Amino acid sequence: MKLRQVQYICAVVQNGLSVSAAAEALFTSQPGVSKQIRMLEEELGAPIFERNGKQFSRLTEFGRGILPYLERIRSEAENVRRVAAELTSPDAGSLSIATTHTQARYTLPPVIAAFRERYPNVKLNLHQGTPEQIAELAASGRVDFAIATESLEHFADLVLLPCYQWNRAVVVPHGHPLANGEPLTLESLADYPLVSYIFGFDDRSKMSAAFARKRLQPNLVLTAADAEVIKTYVRSGLGVGLLAKMAYEAERDGDLACIDARHLFPNEVTSIGLRRGLVLRGYMYDFIHRFAPHLDRVAVDTAVLAHDADKERRLFQAHIPYLMLRG
Prior knowledge:
13 strands
């Protein structure tokens, strides 16, 4: 068994069973990937993939059985490289982060600027997507960190590091009835079409639960992943915007009235999610600490080593009272 054969199989699985996509991701040829996979199947004595012509259609039962071990081999090989790089070039390397538009636009810029000044030889890669997309990227090892509020807890392979709390605001054009100074209520929000995040009103969201407790059915007319898109459609008159308060910038958004809605919804917690077993470089610990100052190296290592889910949950909850509220 060769390490590159293990890497090829894991890459094919990660790329939806597409050999061509796996080859492109690994900067190699499609025939070379197929050949190495066949060689490993012959060595192990059973097919790993079911085939439909020249295409892989799914993992065999045998393939599903050995895949966790292959992924572990690949992960440990990557950890060896990380340890070697830390010992030889502690201030050089790469850091890949997947996050939502709100985090990328409103909370990460000063952190990244300070990090880049301290570590000019670390290459930063920033990926944006929905919470579920970025959680999957971290769980599969395609990025180092996922930074989000939703979905991370649904991936058992991710360690969660709570970073800060935030809440929501309503944005409307000046002169809108909701901006008349009267106390904002869920009942008044339910009277208007709403524009909010794509993940804001799913079955597990705190916003949905808040309306449901009042037996109200919000009129959600548009969802978007980008707060700027939400504000654009509010300006166009489509509806009332409901977004993270940090996404309202008085200087840029002065044409909109911002109404605090924190009394209507529970605080949300943004976390960093990282894959269990990931060996962290020194600059990775530093990035986490810059983003969430209460997360020093000891706190991070404690969370990473807490393999017991209940223990990790208690650690998470213990941090909540000390998290800063942003926005």
